[in-house]
């Protein structure tokens, strides 16, 4: 039953995962992990079975967002079992395997690729509708190894307006194309702020800037997200599952993703 997929990675016979979606960014700090987490929450609220693989091995932040960073994954010698969040999202992260959260992972690319591959072959995800993969940032060696190690079916790019207009996103899109992985679109993060007094949207980088940049790169604009104080606070407190602000945006982003897979 150990079928090989197109990446040459052996599938775990215990896993039945319908869609594996990689969340990618041209560089770090643009909100890739945050978007991964909220997207997972939104899909879970819709009744899907959802898991998150934190493939950002050297900068794992998913467990902290869900407040499970003090828990540890369990194993039985053959398989490793993910940790469940309070709302029932399955999470696997290097952070859940290290003795201490603060310990750095001092590995080179191939070792990281090996670990990520094990997150697929040795972790019991069971039956999932969606496995979201929080990819390592950038278009370097590590991201490449991850793309080769996990049978990702589609990619969602996360970008800020600055990185959108630079060539970073175009580079990431080219990389996905070369690997034969479909780019579902781009989520632009921290595009605008909402005035706390009148609720008016203030486009920091000008109106339609995101759409124009997306057109230029040749990707679908899945949505724009504001810079939001509540989101930052909930993330810091490990309560991202309590997130309610700008849910409408995430509903639309999810609809777009569901429509294109
Ligand atoms: P990445 O995964 O790309 O490195 P993170 O998701 O860890 O980025 O986000 C980087 C920082 O920015 C975090 O402190 C996060 O809470 C904050 N952040 C991300 N998106 C937003 C947003 N829309 N509004 C406010 N803060 C945000």
UniProtKB/TrEMBL annotation:
<protein>
    <recommendedName>
        <fullName>Iron-sulfur cluster carrier protein</fullName>
    </recommendedName>
</protein>
<keyword id="KW-0067">ATP-binding</keyword>
<feature type="binding site">
    <location>
        <begin position="26"/>
        <end position="33"/>
    </location>
    <ligand>
        <name>ATP</name>
    </ligand>
</feature>
<dbReference type="Pfam" id="PF10609">
    <property type="entry name" value="ParA"/>
</dbReference>
<dbReference type="GO" id="GO:0016887">
    <property type="term" value="F:ATP hydrolysis activity"/>
</dbReference>
<keyword id="KW-0378">Hydrolase</keyword>
<dbReference type="GO" id="GO:0016226">
    <property type="term" value="P:iron-sulfur cluster assembly"/>
</dbReference>
<dbReference type="InterPro" id="IPR044304">
    <property type="entry name" value="NUBPL-like"/>
</dbReference>
<keyword id="KW-0408">Iron</keyword>
<keyword id="KW-0547">Nucleotide-binding</keyword>
<keyword id="KW-0479">Metal-binding</keyword>
<comment type="subunit">
    <text>Homodimer.</text>
</comment>
<dbReference type="GO" id="GO:0051539">
    <property type="term" value="F:4 iron, 4 sulfur cluster binding"/>
</dbReference>
<comment type="function">
    <text>Binds and transfers iron-sulfur (Fe-S) clusters to target apoproteins. Can hydrolyze ATP.</text>
</comment>
<dbReference type="GO" id="GO:0005524">
    <property type="term" value="F:ATP binding"/>
</dbReference>
<keyword id="KW-0411">Iron-sulfur</keyword>
<comment type="similarity">
    <text>Belongs to the Mrp/NBP35 ATP-binding proteins family.</text>
</comment>
<dbReference type="GO" id="GO:0046872">
    <property type="term" value="F:metal ion binding"/>
</dbReference>
<dbReference type="InterPro" id="IPR027417">
    <property type="entry name" value="P-loop_NTPase"/>
</dbReference>
<dbReference type="GO" id="GO:0140663">
    <property type="term" value="F:ATP-dependent FeS chaperone activity"/>
</dbReference>
<dbReference type="InterPro" id="IPR033756">
    <property type="entry name" value="YlxH/NBP35"/>
</dbReference>
<dbReference type="InterPro" id="IPR019591">
    <property type="entry name" value="Mrp/NBP35_ATP-bd"/>
</dbReference>
<dbReference type="InterPro" id="IPR000808">
    <property type="entry name" value="Mrp-like_CS"/>
</dbReference>
